[in-house]
């Protein structure tokens, strides 16, 4: 089974060997940390239903190489939290802990947009930017378990301050939050022309422009919203150029809410990628695809990683 601990909800599912969800449950994420562990333990016990099961538990944060301890979780107040041992103690079910972006990337590699390939990079464009790297059919974990934090690749020296304490991270230019930032900047220049519609939307909303409104305007072809999207797509495409120079993946898989906009996002991304890629014309290059498993990727990937962890030869 896979469990995905999100900021607003905790999802759990029993997943078969083909990555299909057999049974699933969802509850709101409790505010208290102790509450989260109880909810997850109850969910594992309910999904196991007395059978011999294993559980992959995905959460946003730095997870150690042994997949047992959460070093740090930005949204939950976990510091060196021995999550695996706690959950195993509470449930009697064998558990591995996974970073949520790694779990989602693994699911796409195994059963989604990366199926049949060996080397893929996934970028999950949500409020922030999550990353996962699969090389030669294995998840890249790094020396301490926390590789592939692609959102914190430095894109702009001395750029915008990021929540991680650095400046100019990809997350500050190529995320859902960045899209909002760009849209609001364009709205401020309403007098200049293309930001008129964004400006009006901002006035109606009373300060910030809701993400759904920006998506609606992008789909409607508003030039201001399209420009905001182009800037965000360019940031991601540029970062992919650097990633390709290091990792040479066969495919970049783009997930998260924004990815559902499809070619509106991918076309300028490919353009920026070509411009940033060393010797673009003289070598085979990665293609771009939209993630297929959307909201279920976390639970599917976590379940499959748990099965592999506890299966001989897996
Ligand atoms: Zn950062």
Keywords:
single chain, 314 residues, alpha/beta, Nucleotidyltransferase, domain 5, five-stranded mixed β-sheet, 9 helices, 13 strands, binds zinc ion
Task: Outline the structure in words.
It is built from 9 helices and 13 strands. With 314 residues, it is α/β, with parallel strands linked by helices. The chain folds into 2 domains: 2-105 and 296-309, Nucleotidyltransferase, domain 5; 117-291, ATPase, nucleotide binding domain (Nucleotidyltransferase, domain 5), CATH 3.30.420.40. Strands 3-2-1-4-8 form a 5-stranded mixed sheet, with helices on both faces. A 5-stranded mixed sheet has the order 11-10-9-12-13, covered by helices on one side. Strand 2 and strand 3 form a beta hairpin. Helix 1 (33-48) packs across helix 2, helix 3 packs across helix 9 (297-309) and helix 4 crosses helix 5 (196-205). The radius of gyration is 20 Å and the shape is globular. The structure holds zinc ion. Zinc ion binds next to loops.
State the CATH superfamily name of the largest domain.
ATPase, nucleotide binding domain
The tally of beta strands, per DSSP, is 13
CATH architecture of the largest domain: 2-Layer Sandwich
The pLDDT mean sits at 94
Low-confidence regions: none
Strand content: 15-25%
Output the CATH topology of the largest domain: Nucleotidyltransferase, domain 5
First-last Cα distance: 16 Å
Based on Cα principal axes, name the global outline: globular
Bound small-molecule species: zinc ion
Number of domains: 2
What is the succession of H and E elements?
EEEHEEEEHEHEEEHHHHEHEH
Q: How many strands, which pairing sense, and closed or not: the largest β-sheet?
A: 5 strands, mixed
Trace the largest sheet across and list its strands: 3-2-1-4-8
- What would CATH call the class of the largest domain? Alpha Beta
SS content category: alpha/beta
């Amino acid at each position: 089974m896979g469990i995905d601990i999100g900021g607003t909800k905790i999802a759990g599912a029993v997943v078969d060997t083909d990555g299909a969800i057999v049974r699933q449950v969802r509850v709101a994420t409790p505010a208290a940390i102790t509450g989260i562990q109880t909810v997850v333990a109850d969910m594992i016990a309910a999904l196991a239903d007395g059978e011999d099961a294993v559980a992959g538990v995905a959460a946003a944060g730095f997870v150690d190489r042994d997949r047992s301890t959460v070093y740090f979780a930005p949204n939950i107040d976990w510091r060196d939290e021995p999550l695996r041992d706690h959950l195993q103690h509470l449930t009697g079910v064998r558990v591995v802990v996974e970073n949520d972006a790694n779990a989602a990337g693994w699911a796409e590699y195994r059963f989604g947009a990366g199926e049949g390939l060996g080397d893929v990079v996934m970028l999950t464009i949500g409020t922030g930017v999550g990353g996962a790297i699969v090389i030669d059919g294995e998840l890249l974990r790094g020396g301490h378990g926390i590789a592939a934090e692609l959102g914190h690749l430095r894109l702009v020296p001395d750029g915008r301050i990021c929540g991680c304490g650095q400046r100019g991270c990809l997350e500050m230019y190529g995320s859902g939050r960045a899209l909002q930032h760009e849209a609001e900047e364009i709205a401020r220049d309403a007098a200049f022309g293309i930001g008129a519609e964004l400006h009006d939307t901002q006035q109606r909303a009373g300060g910030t422009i809701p993400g759904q409104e920006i998506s609606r305007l992008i789909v409607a072809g508003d030039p201001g919203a399209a420009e905001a999207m182009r800037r965000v797509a360019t940031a991601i495409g540029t970062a992919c150029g650097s990633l390709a120079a290091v990792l040479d993946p066969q495919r970049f898989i783009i997930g998260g809410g924004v990815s559902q906009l499809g070619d509106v996002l991918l076309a300028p991304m490919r353009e920026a990628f070509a411009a940033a890629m060393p010797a673009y014309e003289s070598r085979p290059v990665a293609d771009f695809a939209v993630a297929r498993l959307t909201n279920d990727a976390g639970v599917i990937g976590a379940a499959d990683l748990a099965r592999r962890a506890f299966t001989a030869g897996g």
